[in-house]
Amino acid sequence: MALAPFASLVPGARLSDRVADALEAELRGGRIAAGDRLPTEAALATQFGVSRTVVREAVSRLKSVGLVESRQGSGVYARAAGFSPLNFDARHAGSRAAVVQIVEVRRALESEVAALAAERRDAADLQAIRGCIDALDAAVAAGGDGVDEDVRFHRAIADAARNPFLMGTLDYLGQFLHGATRVTRANEARRLDFAQAVSAEHARIVDAIAAGDPAAARQAAADHMHNAIHRIEQADPAFWTQQGEALARALTVAPPT
């Protein structure tokens, strides 16, 4: 598609963020309409005077907030911008403080999810939740990090809550929640006491949900996230230098589409 020249890049941020901001302005201002194909990577690189890698990172950020989508063999297309009640900006996610802040978001959401699950779960839900715990234990015993299994465990609890708006919120934040889980579990795997505490906290959440006790489930889930924050704050400095910082940086990369 032919486009008028974009506005000059605003200085002060890294190049990929400045390109993403300029493209986002075009999308939200309607100058690139929903369904329009964006210029090619090469064309955007030329127009902005940046490398194709910078363009690729910028487009990846736009994908992460749902403003564009890739179509196999066709290119990148604008999606309807709509409203953005949760316009969570990935560029601020790559730090230890941001990991803690994301877990704080999880604490707010997942404590309520657990309470609703305790009210609404049925036998099939409990079977699914317990199956996720078994899968998590098996993954850890086999030497895995348990990240995917941990995410599925919390997802099974969310399924039992039967609230599509909460589910949509968790889906929207999925990239960041999954990334924060990768950081917390990597830290917890370094210490036996941390790993044992996580298992015990999960068990308390499951027991409260199984007992149909919303208050206990809410508290158990909130305590789990509070303790996850505390464990990050207690992490050996070597963890962040060797592993944690690199894992946190991955939060800024949108998942494949």
Task: Detail the topology: elements first, then pairings.
Layout lengths: L14 H14 L12 H8 L3 H13 L3 E4 L3 E4 L17 H25 L2 H19 L5 H15 L2 H9 L1 H15 L3 H19 L3 H20 L3 H13 L8
Antiparallel strand pairs: 1-2
Helix pairs in contact: 1-3, 2-3, 4-6, 4-8, 4-9, 4-10, 5-6, 5-9, 6-8, 8-11, 9-10
Features:
257 residues
Task: Please explain how this structure is put together.
The protein has 257 residues and is mainly alpha-helical. The chain is built from 11 helices and 2 strands, in the order αααββαααααααα. It has helices at 15-28, 41-48, 52-64, 96-120, 123-141, 147-161, 164-172, 174-188, 192-210, 214-233, 237-249, and strands at residues 68-71, 75-78. Strands 1-2 form a two-stranded antiparallel sheet. A hairpin with a 3-residue loop joins strand 1 and strand 2 (75-78). Helix 5 runs antiparallel to helix 6 (147-161). It is globular and about 60 Å long. Residues 252-257 have low confidence and may be disordered.
Strand order within the widest beta sheet: 1-2
- Content of β-strand: under 5%
The number of helical elements comes to 11
**CA-based gyration radius:** 21 Å
For the sheet with most strands, the description reads: 2 strands, antiparallel
Q: What gross morphology would you assign?
A: globular
Low-confidence stretches: 252-257
Protein structure class: mainly alpha
Oligomer state of the chains in this structure: single chain
Distance linking N and C termini: 22 Å
Series of H and E elements = HHHEEHHHHHHHH
